[in-house]
Every structure is written in structure tokens, then in C-alpha cells.
Amino acid sequence: MKKIFQTLLILSFFPAFAQLQIADVFTDNMMLQREKPIRVWGAGNPGEKIRVNFLDETAKTSVKTDSSWQVVLKKHKATTKPNSLVVQSFQEKIIIKNIIIGDVWLLIGQSNMEWPMQAEMHYEEAKKEAKNRNLRFFNPNYIGKNFYGSAYDKHQLKNLSNNILFQKTKWEESDSSSFKNMSAVGYYFGRDIISAENIPIGLINLAIGGAPAETFIDAEALIKNKKFSSKVNGNWLENDALPVWIRERGMQNIGHSQGTNNHAYKPGFAFKTGIKPILKMPIKGILWYQGESNAQELARVKEYPELQKLMIKDYRKQWKNKNLAFYWVQLSSIDTTNYDSHFWPEFRNGQRRLLGEMDHVGMAVSSDVGNKNDIHPRNKKAVGKRLARWALKNEYGKDIIVSGPLPQKAEYKNGNIIVEFKYTGKGLQTLDGKAVRGFSIDGKTELTGEIKDKKIVFPSAEKPEYIYYNWQPYTIGNLGNSEGLPASTFKMEVIESD
């Protein structure tokens, strides 16, 4: 039974039978990952002989009984020279043109990752430099995009019932026209990498507005995890282990349907329909901007670091790359009068703590560019550039400061609370030139402190249990480093110094 299901799943990723086909991610203008074996795959008639040509190499295979085929070509260095990939059977030929080789990054998350350049605050300025044939993107639409609380129609429901979430698209070169729909975070990230390294960058954007983390995690990984197996129990629309908001939206979209409960927010569905079909394609790393849909309930907030850790481990396992880079954006800031953001400080702190629990990860702080009245801050330039710092340091070997200040320890000594930081550059400073603010010992009452190189000293008559920074949904803190990068929200235990 399992073998039959796997065969059906493979076939669902390709149109049915008869003609020679190549996987949807292979289109003109595409980017291939440098210095990794190149896998090319598709579908055809069982037994049919297939020949694949790329650069100076030819590979041959035959279509399997399940109608799938695959070849593996040798790895290549980065090149900006356009090349063609030719796939042939006895009667048919597919030619994929204008392929270059560089680094491919996967973009996933929800609407703040999806947010397009044309709605970003620096769009008009960026448009002047948008033309760059070495920056390419693959940006498929998905079923339900911009439908919000409306009921899906028969066509949408049919696609979902057939496990189709992402619609066919083509790779595009960046120019002043095409880049307007490109992920703004991805654009600024890619532009900085190209500028620093002169390596072509390809961006695959599978972000989904409003999506919970659970949809991007393989359902099998959730099932096998004792903490999270309940998330795939029964009908997801009625499952209390999932965020309330996403279940309500799901009911609005598909609750009237008797044919399917598939939806972009269903646990494992974005993975099954978007990530799994490209697992054979090597990538350089992953950029993740998600959390708003998992941050409205305390139970969901507390479990999130472990949920994200499961996701990262599973992606590395499935891509067969234990060091696969995974960089995320810490939630921004918004006032509670405009959004249910009461638990955001706790959520941001959980994202920060995860940094110290895994290797080959990084986090871009974004609370300083939040919008008090809007869940979608328009300054994606700062976010993309901060993510690029992590990649430039860890993946490309640049000697740069990757982050704003992160706390290393907090101690009570001689009547003072002393907080020490890393990533200070040439020293701590305030971003507005005023006295440091945003610290407290109860999450509310402001502390007065003094910056001393890599530390901040706060006079205190007693040792508090914790010290907090930016412990508000809409942050007021102004701590940064010499690079102008903001400090992360944190809650840290204060220890007694000997």
C-alpha cells in the first residue's frame, strides 16, 4: 500500500502520462546550485530511453515503471555564461535555455517574506538598479493568494484535492519590471551577496501569506515527534493543537467543501506540495520569515522554538546536508491595539534562544523597523541586508559583524546588575544617541544604566531574578552596536557573582 501511495505521489508532481516532461522547477532563465551534483528529473513513458545534455556532459537513463526518470550530472563552478539543458527521448526534445550557475536560496514563511518589492518603502530607488541578469527568482503563485476570508471556488478546490497548491511559473531575471513581484527581503539579500561575492544568486520563493509553521514541516516528521504528533490528528480544521486563527481562516475558505480539507495552512501541505518536489535540487541555504500566525496563543509561543528546531533538523535530513544554512527573521514589533501581539516579546526571546542551540543558523533582528499600526513593516531592505550578513560571514567567509548585540550573561555584583554582550563591534552604543532605554527587571519598569564598552551596568539595591530588554510588543529600546545593528529582545536570568 505504501509503495502504491508513493508512486501516486510521484505522478502527482507531473501532468499525466504520454509526453516527455521535466520537473516544473526547470525553466528558461533558471539557476543551478554551484559545486553540487546536478540532478535532472521528470516523467515519461515507462521504458522510454532518455538522454540529457548539459555543458560537456551527456547522461542516459530509461523511464521507470512509475513513469519517473532522473539523471545526475557532475558539479560545476559558478558561471554567468548562459548554457542550455537538452532532454531528449526518441520522439521529443525539451530545451531549457539561459541557465547560469551560482547559489540557490529557498525563501519560506508568511506574508512578510512574500512581501513584494513594489510595496517596499525603497522601491522607487531600488528600481533604478533592478536590472541584474545574475539575480534570478522563481516565484509561483499559490491557491488562495489574496482570497483572505472568502470561500474558494470549484476550480481552487479541485486543484487542492489533487494536491496542487503552487501554480506553474518560470524563472525570471531581475529587471525593473519583473522584480516588482519579487520578495523584497529576498531581493535585498541577494543583491548584497552578489555585490560582495560576484556570484549569481537564485531565489525560490515559496512563502504563503498567513501560513503557520506547521504547513512547512513534513507531516511524517510531525507524526514521529511525541511533542507534535497531535498536530496531525484528525481533521486539522478542528484540531486544538493548531493555532485558532489558521483554523478559522481554513473554515472560511474550504469549510463549505465536502471534497477536500487540503489548504495552504494544513500541517505538512506546503511541504508536500512545494518543498518535497524540489528536494532533489541542491540549494545553498534557507531564509525563514514566519511567526505571526504562531504567536497569538501562549501555548503556541512556548512550543515554537522546538517546532522550528524540528523543522530545521528535518530539512537538513531531507536535503542530505547536515550543515544546511538556515537563517530566520525575528518577529518585528506592533502595538497591541492594532494586532493581537501580547505574546510577541516571549516569542522573540524564544527565537533568540534557538540561536545558541543549533549550528549553521542565524537571526536578523527587525523590531527596530516595526510599524506600530501595521503587521507588514515596509522596510524590508534592512531585514534582507541583515540576513545577508549572516550568510556573508558563515557561507562566504567575510570578516563582518553578523548581528546586533546579543546577551551573553547577566550577573549581580557589588550592588550592580551587569549585562555582557557579544557582537558589539567597536562597542555598544545607542542607536539614537540618547541614554540607553528598554531595560527592566519586571518587564515593565524602566531601568537606568550606563554603557561600558561591551557591558551595561545598572545600579540595583537587590539582585533581581531576571533582566528584560524590549519586553513590549512594540519595542522602545535603543541599544545597538558600532555597525548600527539593533539588540535583540531578551529575558535572561541574573546570577549572583562570587
Automatic annotation (TrEMBL):
Keyword set includes Nucleus: no
Sialate O-acetylesterase domain mapped to chain residues: 279-391
One GO BP: carbohydrate metabolic process
Signal peptide per UniProt: 1-18
Classification via InterPro entries: SASA, SGNH_hydro_sf, SIAE
UniProt keyword terms in alphabetical order: Hydrolase, Signal
Any one Gene Ontology molecular-function term assigned to this protein's record: sialate O-acetylesterase activity
Pfam families reported in the protein's UniProt record: SASA
Tree of life domain: Bacteria
Name this protein carries in UniProt: Sialate O-acetylesterase
Organism expressing this protein natively: Salegentibacter holothuriorum
